[in-house]
Amino acid sequence: MKSVNYLFKxxxxxxxxxxxxxxxxxxxxxxxxxxxxxxADGQLFGLFRIDPIDDIxxxxxxxxxxxxxxxxxxxxxxxxxxxGILYGLDGVVGFLLGQGYLxxxxxxxxxxxxxxxxxxxxxxxxxxxxxxxxxxxxxxSRKLAAQG
Length: 148
Prior knowledge:
The chain is mostly helical. The protein has helices at about 5-10, 15-30, 50-70, 75-95, 105-110, 115-145, and strands at about 45, 50. It has one domain. The protein contains six helices and two strands. A hairpin with a 3-residue loop joins β1 and β2 (about 50). α4 (about 75-95) packs antiparallel against α6.
């Protein structure tokens, strides 16, 4: 049986980041079920409307990240490329229109009127998380591959 230290020595940085993304998404899903983090309207931190579809998407993103990290560097890199584009674009669409597309909100409710500051705050996590994933998948993976 391989020790934890051995596994971390053999793990590529891209895979480690995929494990971090997996833990982050599972943590985000968990937050919605811990008293005190949601308000009376069921909004996480009083800002994010989280429903079962969002939980499924976040949990699926975490499971996808974990499977990619477990599988290979190539799978983890592909995860970051695809996930980063989808998630980052969802944040941009949400910022511009008040609803994202991953949870179907823009298709179900159409553009949502809200002030720019709220749109920015509500979509910033998707933009940052997706943007970092794009950097990891496209730039960092190439940099690490070039180092050999």
